[in-house]
Automatic annotation (TrEMBL):
Name by which UniProt lists this protein: DUF1049 domain-containing protein
TM spans (from-to): 46-68
Keywords per UniProt: Cell membrane, Coiled coil, Membrane, Transmembrane, Transmembrane helix
GO cellular component: plasma membrane
Location of the Lipopolysaccharide assembly protein A domain: 23-94
Name of one Pfam family that matches: LapA_dom
Coiled-coil parts of chain: 73-107
Annotated InterPro entries: LapA_dom
Length: 113
């Protein structure tokens, strides 16, 4: 199974390197469209290789997806935390009640109950 994982990671690496080599040309990224940049007075631009833009888009998309899932599953984590706390409280109560029930009895007889 380990070799399959390494082979898969190798294939992904080869694919990423080939995409990077095929998209080395520089592209200009503008902060705002030309008309809006003139109105706002902000004309920020940067030139990057296209593969950097592609990979950055993939990374940003993954981060947004992870955050979205984390937020969506918050109610499930909170519910599990609440139920775990309740289970621990009930376990403590059962131990306390068993101790009260068998108070003053012989330990062997208490185990048989």
């Amino acid at each position: 199974m380990k070799y399959i994982r390494y082979a898969f990671m190798g294939l992904i690496a080869v694919a990423l390197v080939s995409v990077a080599l095929a998209n080395r040309d520089l592209v200009t990224l503008n902060l705002l469209p030309e008309g809006l940049a003139e109105i706002a007075g902000v004309n920020q631009a940067i030139s990057l290789p296209l593969f950097v833009v592609i990979f950055a888009g993939i990374v940003v998309g993954l981060l947004i997806g992870f955050f979205w899932e984390w937020m969506r599953e918050h109610k499930h984590r909170a519910d599990a935390r609440r139920k775990t706390r309740e289970a621990h409280q009930l376990e403590r109560e059962v131990k306390r009640l068993k101790g009260e029930k068998h108070k003053g009895k012989d330990e062997v007889l208490a185990l048989l109950d």
